[in-house]
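re: ur question from yesterday

yeah so i grabbed the chain u mentioned. its 232 aa long if i counted rite. heres the sequnce exactly as i have it in my notes:
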Amino acid sequence: MGEAADYLHLQRQDLETLVKRDGIPHEKQGERIVFRKQQIDVWASQRILGLSGNHLYEYHRKSSARHHDLSPGHALMPEFITPDRIAPALSSKTKPSILRDMMALAERTELVCDPMDLLQSLQEREHLCSTALSNGVALLHPRHHEPHVFLDSFIVLGRVTQPIHAGSEDGTPTSLFFLVCCQDDRIHLHTLARLCTMIQSTTMLDELRAAEGAPVMLEAILKAEVDVIRRL
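ran it thru and got these structure tokens back, copy pasting raw so excuse formatting
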């Protein structure tokens, strides 16, 4: 029963209710309930076609979100960022242009379902409150974190050739822009906490500013995360 519930993205108790009401194809072998894959695949397809509104959204959320280990000792950065997701010399000169350029960098991952929707969400988030910190780094992220926006969670990083006034509280210009794109709030908050810890307790930012090229920048990020995990 549990395996079938996971396959169909249903709660076990919901599947049990469907069985009791003969709402799903199944067979009884003594006290054991058996589901034939071909039959429940047809049933599931018809069910999806009949869903709408919140029910459809919730099914899509459960079926789309990728699993990531969020335990304290697990390294997230190797899963989220790669050299091709790092732009070491962006020519952006204003906050609107850096948002557009970071959206374009995210689009290159081929994990963004609607790039213009992402850009709008970034703009809305920055309008609420700037994500630029006082140490010359910004942790950009969209206003909403939903599975239908991204095919998987990821991070991109842009380093501008000329620091930009991006709205930090102390007026410090920003040279490093992380864009954190997550499929749900739990992953998002965990990832932000990890990045903030890396920023505050390691030399990562200095190394990122001095690094020559994306591979070296990635090494600095991975090393900083390892340092943070070791202290847990």
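noticed a couple things. The mean pLDDT is 88. also The chain has ten helices and six strands.
anyway ttyl
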